[in-house]
Structures are given as structure tokens and as C-alpha cells.
Amino acid sequence: MNAMNDDDTLDRQLRDAAPYIDDEGFTARVIARLPAPRREPRWLRAMVLLGVTALGSGVAYLLSGGGRFVREGVIQLSTFPIWLLLVFAFGCGLVVGAFAVIFAIRKTPEVRDLGRLRF
Question: In terms of residue numbers, what domain contains 67?
Fold first, then answer.
């Protein structure tokens, strides 16, 4: 069965469902007595993530021999012919562009139901 038809059917069933059952204000009283949600400061989460990232990067740097592999990689890359580097860069651009187009197309509502497309 088509996903769009399932969504339409579910929406129709939810709209046609029984109306709210009166509970003589019980729900409103319970909600009113609930404590206000505590809000963690956003900067605290950002600092924790930044600290963990810096710590992980430092440990990876130390365990990898002080970044020796980066220096060796740059030296190996400098021995490649320039035409090969240009082809590699162009290929990477094509791959990234293709993924961007695919994800952009997938977000359009028409793609969710290919049967509705008119060519």
C-alpha cells in the first residue's frame, strides 16, 4: 500500500475519532500541579561537548605519534601529479553535489508519492 494513502487514512481516522471526553477538569488540575520544567543552560551543554571534543582530539593526537601521520600524508600528497589531484578534487565535488541533489529532492513532498507525479 502507498505510504501517502496510509497517512491520509490515518489523518481521516484521527479527525473522525470521538471528541475529548470531559473529565471535569481533572487533566487541567494535574497539569497545573506539575512542577515547571528545569531548563539547563545551553552554554553548559556546548562547553561540555567542546571540552570532550578537545580532550578526545588531544588523546588521538598523542596516541597517533604526535601527528606524524599528517606530516607523512602531506609529503606523499605533494609527490602526486597535479592532474591527478585536479581529477580527485573534481570527483569529490561531483560526489558531494550528487548527494546534495539527492537529499534536496528527497525533501520535496512530490517525491514521497511518485504515483502523483505528472510527466
Answer: 42-79
